Amino acid sequence: MLDQHLRFTGWSREAEELFGLASEEVLGRPADAVLADTETGAGVSAVGGGGAAWSLGPRPVRRGDGRPVSVSLSLTPLALGAGATGWLLTAVDAELAHREAIGRAMLDGLDREAPVQLVVYDTDARVRWINTAIEKQFGIPLEDAVGRFVKDILPQGEVLGEADGTATSVEEIVQRVARTGAPEIDVRYRSPTYLDPRHERVWSCSYFRLQDDDGRPIGVCEAGLDITDRYVARQRLALLSRASGSIGRTLDIRCTAQDLAELVVPEFADAVTVDIVEAVLSGQEPQHFGTRPTLCRVAHRTDHAAAEDTADDALDTVRLRCLAENAPATDAATHALALPLKARGATLGVVAFARSRHADPFEHEEIQLAEELVSRTAVCLDNARRYTREHATALTLQRDLLPRTLPQQPGVEVAHRYLPAAGPAGVGGDWYDVIPLSGARVGLVVGDVAGHGTGAAATMGRVRTTVAALAALDLAPDELLARLDDLVARTGAPPSGPAEAEDQALGVTCLYAIYDPVSRHCVMARAGHLPPVLLTPDGHAELVDLPAGPPLGLGGLPFECADIELPEGATLALYTDGLVENRHTDIDAGVSSLCTALAGPEDGQLHKTCDKVITTLLPQPPEDDAALLLLRVHALAENLVATWDVASDAGEVARARALALDQLAAWGVDEAASFVVELVVSELVTNAIRYGGAPVCLRLIRERGLIVEVSDGGHTSPHLRRAAMEDEGGRGLFLVAQLTQRWGTRYTPTGKTIWTEVSLVPAQMPGIFAGEQFDL
User: Fold this and answer.
1) Helices 253-264 and 228-246: angle between axes, nearest 10 degrees
2) Which among 108, 400, 714, 776 is least buried, having the fewest CB atoms inside 10 angstroms?
């Protein structure tokens, strides 16, 4: 309070706190001395007076402790009685007033203008206050929200998940923050609103505790931001990211289409269908198709929650329009979208998406997302189509190159199985063969070309043909592999230019064996291949102790033979590594399993043994080609083989003819065949005595036809020639060739053997015996 002379007559407690001066220090003093402006020195009297009220903006005044304080002053005249006039001086801390004004403006802004959604909960998680942004976006007034839980206000809302991956409710989060005081940041909450109940929105919410001056919790404040657009964009990017890892995991067209369907339903669409041009399924080039290709449904997926509301006819309509225009087609009324599956400029099929009638139609950004998903799928489908074509080509090539039926040979039973690789590696180069040889013997071969695909299959055919050609020379197994190794090494020499690829025949493994049913001996050698398994008649199975040799084309080591005598009724198993080795089983364990599968008493049917082995070792489609060749051996009866030693004397020729005719009579051979055999024996024994030398041996084998063999100690190879009219000799071998079905020469460590095969069927006899003119 001031008197009429502007001296202090009253000084309140608040004034003491503001200016740092006690009342006794102020009362009676002029206001100009106490409240002078520290910058200009002006006092209160400079602006006061005249009996009118006035106010003065913020001015610095020195406190009692010497510090300045900015205050706003207001002076109001007072009637003191008896005509005297005084003044009421009001001082306000300008900085505090400014902060309070800002605080009031901020609170009012948060309540009415802020885009942030604010909610205040009590410690029980009931709503106590919401700002205008909440009212506007959710369409619920403050009076309808106060006192209720969020789960009652928005029953369809959900917390999408917390940092630890656990889902909870808003009530649990609020109570936890109120209890612990630890704030929780960026909690994702999704819910429809009262203003738009058909569409969900997403908010990022943060929670912090409110407390009184004593630190006691009185509630929790929630601040939320609408992040729907950002969340949707992130979800789309996540969908594309998952598509990279989930679509095209296999080179199977149907599986790839199903991968797309499983990815997009229900996250992107409520229903999806994938239709592929029929010819694509078999691997054909899409540009070969007509203008109206036949489609096959390869994938169809529907979200059961929206299945009743998704019309199939809507998909059919938009799909047909997409195919007709070969471009994206949409139908906003039915919420359907169809996109062509295009790869390398060709259309492979069509994908149709549909949403429930209660959902949003496909927007521009979503159509772009669908186009990206379909484009990736189309590339994977085209890769699968090309793999399907190559796999089918390689499989066809390999099946054409493998023997469709194996020859029935005397003294052996044969069963075989071949399983192509089922994985993405494709068909490999495994092969097997049974080759008839002279003297009722049989050649057995199994091999494996490194790599997969048509190249491996073609290489397999080349190597198999070469083996068959070398086997026809009656070479021993080690010599055959040596010649084959030399051929592969030459063809696989360093290429002349950088564009030439290495020959796939390099590194081929092969096993070749010759079984003789007369002696029951089997001679075999291997080039980097697994040794065979021998199953004895008593049911015992074990690996054959066969010296190892290097794979073909590497050279450096010789090939060695093993000669074993097989007991009557024994079974020999030849196989490739695909039968006994995979990513889960090492080769030793696989071979042990093969021996176990073969062991035990046989049921007499070799093909059932084959099936048993395949079922046991390959319960699932093999990762690599697998081949199995089973050979059960039998010895020819002794009464079907006749052998005589012949002295190196020309007079022995007649004796040899007589011995042969006596044996033919005992076998019941007719006169025509006996005549041929007599002539053949005469010519071959004569040549052996004359040109070959001791020891000379004659052998007859009666098996289907007649086999005549004459062995001698010479190594000179006989050759066929045509004698001139005036020549007295040179016609013997020519006659032999004309009168027999086949003839040839094989070499032994002690010399050579000339062999011939004579038919006992009249229709297969030479022309002279079939009633035709035969020119000798």
Assistant:
1) 160
2) 776
Please enumerate in sequence order all residues whose Cβ is within 8 A of that of 109, keeping only pairs 6 or more positions apart, or say none: none
501 close to 569: Cβ distance less than 8 angstroms: no
Comparing 177 with 248, which gets the higher pLDDT?
177
Quick one: which H or E segment has residue 190? strand 184-192
Helix axes 477-491, 454-471, angle to 10 degrees: 140
Structure tokens at 771: 């009633």
What is the gyration radius of the CA atoms in the chain, in angstroms?
52
* Alpha-carbon distances, residue 285 vs 274, 346, 389, 593 (angstroms): 19, 9, 9, 43
Collapsing DSSP states into helix, strand and coil, what is residue 551? coil
> CB within 8 A of 41, min separation 6: which ones?
none
- Outline where 472-605 has alpha helix (H): 477-491, 587-598
CA–CA separation, 430 and 606 (whole Å): 21
On the question of pLDDT at 109 being above 90, the answer is no
pTM above 0.70, yes or no: no
Supply 267's token pair. Answer: 């996250």
Residue 767 CA to residue 238 CA, distance in Å, equals: 83
**Paired tokens of 264:** 């997009």
Residues 6+ apart with CB under 8 A from 269: 337, 353, 354, 355
Report the largest interatomic distance among the alpha carbons of the chain, rounded to a whole angstrom. 185
Q: What tokens were used for 84? A: 């005297």
- What is the Cα–Cα distance from 586 to 359, expressed in whole angstroms? 55
Q: Is residue 702 within a helix (H) or strand (E), and if so which, with residue range?
A: strand 696-703
529-577 pLDDT per residue, tens = 999 999 999 889 999 999 988 998 877 678 999 999 999 999 999 999 9
User: In terms of Cα–Cα distance, which of 58, 365, 90 is closest to 230?
Assistant: 365
How many C-beta atoms lie closer than 10 Å to residue 491's C-beta? 13
Whole-angstrom distance, CA of residue 145 vs CA of residue 148:
6
Strand partners, 523: 514, 563
Give 401-447 as a DSSP string: HS-SS----TTEEEEEEEE---STT---EEEEEEEE-GGG-EEEEEE
- Spatial distance between the Cα atoms of 476 and 562, rounded to a whole number of angstroms: 11
What are the two backbone dihedrals, phi and then psi, of residue 720, each rounded to the nearest 5 degrees?
Answer: -90, 135
Length of the chain: 776
Which helix (DSSP H) or strand (DSSP E) does residue 758 occupy?
strand 751-758
Q: Cis before residue 183, ω within 30 degrees of 0?
A: no
Rounded to whole angstroms, the Cα distance separating 555 from 553 reads 6
Amino acid at 114: A
- Say which residue the tokens 């929200």 belong to: 145
Report d(CA 677, CA 743) in Å as an integer.
13
Give the least confident one: 9-18, 508-517, 547-556, 564-573: 547-556
Please state, in angstroms and rounded to a whole number, the distance separating the CA atoms of residues 275 and 349.
5
Backbone region of residue 49 per phi and psi (left: phi > 0; alpha: psi in -120 to 50; beta: other values) = left
Q: Which residue's entry shows tokens 């079984």?
A: 515
H or E, element range at 770: none
CB 13 within 8 A of CB 23: no
For 360, half-sphere exposure in the C-beta direction (CA atoms, 13 angstrom radius) is: 13
Residues 412/515, Cβ–Cβ less than 8 Å: yes
Residue spans of alpha helices (H) in 186-277: 228-246, 253-264
Q: What is the pLDDT of residues 51-96, one digit of tens each?
A: 677 777 788 888 888 888 888 888 888 877 766 678 888 988 877 7
Cβ atoms of 605 and 407 closer than 8 Å: no
Which DSSP helix (H) or strand (E) runs through 734? helix 732-739
